[in-house]
Each structure stands twice: as structure tokens, then as C-alpha cells.
Amino acid sequence: MRIDILTLFPQVFELPFKIGIFQRAIDRKLIDVNIHNIRDYTHDKHHMADDYPYGGGAGMVLKPEPIFRAVDDLKKKMDIVEEESTIISLTPQGRLFCQAIAQELSFKNHLILICGHYEGVDERVNQYLATDEISIGDYVLSGGEPAALVVIDAVTRLIPGVLGSSDSLEDDSYTNGLLEYPQYTRPAVFREWQVPDILLSGNHAHVAKWRRQQSILRTLKRRPELLDKVKLNSKEKQYINRLLIDQSEEKLD
Ligand code: ADE
């Protein structure tokens, strides 16, 4: 997958792509990341990438010309057909990012991410250039750069060959619609807190059942709305009903 990032702050991306799964994905040629400074596409003497908002108000708005120019230039250089690129504008007004969107994007060949700043980008970028607008949460960041990293991270780890074992994907929170079960490593006892016995038992079937139940329990306690969309077997439904009864009797800790 080719990834192009348009930003006013290219230095933000210098380190992340040298570490961890990003580095591995780049080394294995599974992703090819290119950072572009929007300011390089300004044509005026002062390299102005932003300007005052029409109608007044606080802050500055990113100008449309350099961003359109950057994308045109990319397409020309890469000989890319229009429909092949997914052009994402990162904005708090976008659709809320989630695992399903990460999955959808992981099948694309080419992502272009536009990082807004200040009061955002000129609306014509969102309307006529971007094919998608994405928000990573209901809060306002000072720029789209952290959001771009979040999106690229979640998407990259879904590309086959990036993670060591495909198992680690299946058990992820959200992949099966549930939050992930608790994980432990050595030592078995730390400050008198013991790892659950069942995980030391070596009985894989019991461990798998315990983990599934822990996932259900956690989801019920922390994100009950997620359970509506999860496929559960009849035993698991019974388990939930029991938990709900316990909860109503305030036995759930
Ligand atoms: N830019 C500023 N805030 C943002 C958010 N919540 N998501 C994506 N881009 C943003």
C-alpha cells in the first residue's frame, strides 16, 4: 500500500515510521510512506499555506490551492487513475474512525492523508478533493497529524504479513466485536497478586473458554453497547443473562 501524507509539519512523522510495526511494514515493502510539506506547494513569496477565514472569526484556515496542487502533482508523478486513490481529510467533523473503517482502508492500494491545522482546511478541499473525512474521536486536536498516525497504525497492522502471527489479530479488541480479555506474563506472583490459576493450567480449551468469558464480562462492564452487535452462542447468552442478574444484585465488582 502506498501512503502519502500532506502536512505542514513533516517533522512529526520522522520518528514513528522508524519504529515497531511501521518500520517492519516498510522494510517488508508492505507499505511505502511518503511525507509532503504542503508549504512546498505554495507559489507566493511568503509561502503562505493558510489565510484568514471569510466571514471573520478566530484562527486561520489552510488554503485550498497548495493542497489541490500537491494531490495533482502526486497523481501526475505516479500515473495514478483517479479512482485508485482514497483521499482522507482528517477532521473532527469526519466519520468516526473504528476497526471496521480500518479494515475497509486496509484493502486500498493508495491512501492520501490530509492533515489540517489551525481552524481546519478550506471546505472545498473536503468537498471536491477528499473522498473521505475521518475523525478519530469526539475531541479537537491541534492538528490532523496524530490522527493520521492513528489511522495509519490501525490500518497497517491489518495488512497481511505485517504482524508476526495472524492469531494476534483475531484476539484483538473489536476484531470479534468484544473487548480483549486480560493478559498476563511472568512472574506468576507479583506483589502478592496472582495470575489466574486457569492460565497456568496448560488446558487450552479451558483457557480459551475463560478468555471468551472474560471478554464478554469486560465488554458488558465497560462497553455494553458493543454487545448488541456480537454473535453469541446460546451458552454465552445464558452467561450474559447470569452476569446481568448478578449485576442487578450488585455482585459484579
Ligand atoms: N483534527 C483535529 N481534531 C481531529 C480529530 N478529532 N480527528 C481527526 N482529525 C482532527
Per-chain topology:
Elements: E1 2-7, H1 20-27, E2 32-37, E3 50-51, E4 61-62, H2 64-78, E5 85-96, H3 99-106, E6 110-115, H4 123-128, E7 132-135, H5 145-156, H6 167-170, E8 189-190, E9 193-194, H7 197-200, H8 204-222, H9 234-248
This protein binds adenine.
Structural account:
- With 253 residues, the protein is an alpha/beta fold.
- The protein has nine helices and nine strands.
- It has two domains: 2-156, Alpha/beta knot; 189-252, Trp Operon Repressor, Chain A (Orthogonal Bundle), CATH 1.10.1270.20.
- Helices cover 36% and strands 17% of the residues.
- A five-stranded parallel sheet has the order 2-1-6-5-7. Strands 3-4 form a two-stranded antiparallel ribbon. A two-stranded antiparallel sheet has the order 8-9.
- The two termini are 45 Å apart.
- 23% of the residues are buried.
- The mean pLDDT is 94.
- Bound molecules: adenine.
- Adenine binds next to strand 5.
- Adenine is lined by residues 90-92, 116, 135-137, 139-141, 144, 147.
The separation of the N and C termini measures 45 Å
Q: Give helix and strand order, one letter per element, not per position.
A: EHEEEHEHEHEHHEEHHH
Strand content: 15-25%
Structure classification? alpha/beta
Q: Please state the oligomeric state of the protein chains shown.
A: single chain
Give the % helix: 25-40%
Q: Runs with pLDDT <50, length 5+?
A: none
List the bound ligands: adenine
Spatially, the strands of the biggest sheet line up as 2-1-6-5-7
CATH topology assignment of the largest domain: Alpha/beta knot
How many helical stretches?
9
Task: Please tally the β strands and state the result.
Answer: 9
